[in-house]
Amino acid sequence: MHRGLIRIITIFVFSLTAALFFSCASSPAPVPQDASAQKIIQLAQERYDAYDLNGANYYYQILLDRFGSDPNYMLNAKYEMAFIEYKKGRKDKALAAFKEIVARYDQPDAASLSQTWKVLSEKLIAELTAKK
């Protein structure tokens, strides 16, 4: 009787561990070539909301690769990727990325850019430098 109970518990623990391992190991779904920038941002946000920072970063990199020539999408992707670095505790990488975003607003076409990414980046730069 005792041996059977140990076997059942062992099988249960093994099954639970395997289920957790394989559920966390899922990779993000590929993005169709004709996906819009908004669709890619939505996919990234869904991964972020599911606490899958690597998956979110994957989608933001796709946004950057496909729509990076548009400065507003480029800044959106770079900000979100920098924020992911911040959330992962990689403060130095995040700080450098936020400073790069703010520096982009020194270029001649800055008036046509959304100020959102600059304002948010400046707030996080202030927070990151205050703690040093």
Any key phrases for this structure?
132 residues; 0% strand; mainly alpha; single chain; Serine Threonine Protein Phosphatase 5, Tetratricopeptide repeat; 6 helices
According to DSSP, the number of beta strands is 0
Report the portion of residues in β strands: under 5%
Supply the CATH superfamily name: Tetratricopeptide repeat domain
Please state the structural category. mainly alpha
Question: Any overview of this molecule?
Answer:
By secondary structure, the chain is mainly alpha-helical. Helix 2 packs antiparallel against helix 3, helix 3 packs antiparallel against helix 4 and helix 5 runs antiparallel to helix 6. The longest helix is centred in the N-terminal third of the chain and has 23 residues. The protein starts with a helix and ends with a helix.
Topology at a glance:
Blueprint: H1 2-24, H2 37-49, H3 53-67, H4 71-87, H5 91-104, H6 116-130
Helix pairs in contact: 2-3, 3-4, 4-5, 5-6
Summarize the structure.
By secondary structure, the protein is mainly α.
